[in-house]
Amino acid sequence: MTKSHCYCNAAEVDHSNMLSCQRCNKYFHVGCLKRGKPSTLEGDVLFDFVCSGCSQDGFERCTRLKLQWTHVVMLSLYNLQLQGEDGKCGYFRWREHICNFIDKNWTAFFGFGRKKTNTWHGTVAGTLSAGCPRVFTSGVTELKEPGWWSLANSKPPTQRELLDHLAGVLSKSAHKSMRGSSRSSSIASDDRPEQFARKTEAPPAASTSSSRSSSFSFGSTNRSVLDNAMEDVFRQLTKTDFSDNDDDDLDINPGSISQIGRASCRERV
């Protein structure tokens, strides 16, 4: 029997126009949501969503996921392609078109809590270079001119893609926090002076396979550390109140752009 989705009992799933409920895993058209469309942007389904049938109070819950810059640029290019007014053969200028679109729709992407930094234009340039050719396509070959970009597959980012990405970030951050906490506990319990303990500590290259395995063990202490770390990271992934000095893990210093994307796309943005 075919599984039905949405309040309208749709049989087909359109990932570019539907939100997945995180409880029942059914997909819902953004146009069918009882609370209205969550975004003014076309193809924007990057939300943590729970349908009215799964929520405890009977009301839908729709919370903006913490966007990475790759998804911001993808959504911008997708909307620019739908408008199709200022581009050239499906390509758009990175500063004149893409950055201008992000600037005009900043609140739709990030909410009211996040302020613009002086380096965000450089972050967009670095994101385009780093994502070429897997996500973004440079127009230098077709247009014979640098600075023009398009989406590699002309599709917006999906909710599942972002959730899978955030799950990977969650896992890496949780293990990193677990190792850091375990190391801090080990140093704190050492009766020797800190300087002496540092000198006598074995270098990482000399560690045995058994010692490496023990650092990732899931005993009662480390499991507790991991659980706490995962909770902290998950709160960070779904937060919407950004401070002035908030540095995303994909905020790129313009000075490092040449080190990020030149290997995959030999072009200046």
Detailed description of the structure:
The chain has 10 helices and 7 strands. The radius of gyration is 23 Å and the shape is globular. It starts with 17 loop residues before the first strand and ends in an 8-residue tail after the last helix. The longest helix has 30 residues, at about 160-190. The protein has helices at about 70-85, 95-105, 105-110, 120-130, 140-145, 160-190, 195-200, 210-215, 220-235, 255-260, and strands spanning about 20, 25-30, 45-50, 60-65, 90-95, 135-140, 150. Strands 5-7-6 form a 3-stranded antiparallel beta sheet. A two-stranded antiparallel ribbon has the order 1-2. A two-stranded antiparallel sheet has the order 3-4. It is mainly alpha-helical.
Average residue pLDDT: 74
Gyration radius, rounded = 23 Å
Strand order of the largest sheet: 5-7-6
- Measured between the Cα atoms of the first and last residue, the distance is 51 Å
Low-confidence stretches: 186-227, 237-269
Give the count of helical stretches.
10
Helix content: 40-55%
Summarize the entry for a quick read.
42% of the residues lie in helices and 9% in strands. It is mainly α and 269 residues long.
Topology:
Layout: E1 18-20, E2 27-29, E3 47-50, E4 61-64, H1 69-83, E5 92-93, H2 94-104, H3 106-110, H4 120-130, E6 136-138, H5 140-143, E7 148-151, H6 159-188, H7 194-200, H8 209-215, H9 220-237, H10 257-261
Antiparallel strand pairs: 1-2, 3-4, 5-7, 6-7
Helix pairs in contact: 1-2, 2-4, 6-9
